[in-house]
Amino acid sequence: MQNSAMFREILNDHYANPRNHGLLADKDYITVHLKNPSCGDDLTIQFKLNGEEIEDIRQEVSGCAICCASASIMSELLKAKTVSEAEAIIHEFRLMVSAEPFDDSELDEALCLQGVSQVPPRIKCASLAWLALQEGLDNLEQFKEHKHNDENNQDNNEAKSV
Ligand code: ZN
Question: How far is the CA of 149 from the centre of ligand 1 (A)?
C-alpha cells in the first residue's frame, strides 16, 4: 500500500494526541461502554444529540494503539454529522475493516485503518468505538431511560463485552 507510511503517521498522531478525549459529567450526553476482552480494550464514548445532529462526541479508551486511534478518528469524523450520515459512515467503515467492497468517499482519516482488515485480531480493536456509537444510536430511548433511573449510580450500567 503506497500510503502506508502516511497512514501510520496519522494513526500515531491520533494515538499520541487523542481528539475529543475525556468524559463529561453532563446528563445531556448518552454514554456507551464497551469492552473487547480478546485484546483488553476498554472504551467509553459519550455523545450529545441536537435534534438530528450529533453535536458532540467524547471518548476515553484504555487499550491498544489501534483502538485508541480509531476512537479519536471516529469522534472527529462523526461529530457534527446527522444521525443518518453517521450511520452510513459507520456502515462503510465496517465493510472496510471486513475487507468488503466499501465507499471511501466519506471515510477520510478512517481510511488509515483499512489495513486491519488483513489482521483479524485487530478488526475488533478498530471497530469498537464505531460499534459503541451505533449501539447508542440504536438504543436512544433505553439509554435516556437508564440515565433517568440511575442518575446517582453511574456504575450501574455495567460494561458489556463484545
Ligand atoms: Zn485492541
Answer: 32
- Give residue-wise pLDDT tens across range 118-134: 999 999 999 999 999 99
Q: E-assigned strands of the chain?
A: 30-36, 41-50, 53-62, 160-161
Distance of alpha carbon 155 from alpha carbon 162, whole angstroms: 18
Picking from 95, 25, 21, the residue whose alpha carbon sits closest to that of residue 58 is 21
Tell me if 109 sits within 8 A of 15, measured CB to CB.
no
Closest to 23 measured CA to CA, from 48, 54, 51:
48
Cα(113) to ligand 1 centroid in Å equals 13
Q: What's the pLDDT tens digit per position in 71-93? A: 999 999 999 999 999 999 999 99
The alpha carbon of 155 and the centre of ligand 1 are apart by a number of angstroms equal to: 23
Distance 40 CA to ligand 1 centre (A): 6
**Short-list 88, 49, 97, CA closest to 70:** 97
- DSSP lists the bridge partners of residue 58 as 46
| Pairwise CA distance, residues 139 & 70, whole Å | 22
Rounded CA gap, 65 and 135, in Å?
Answer: 22
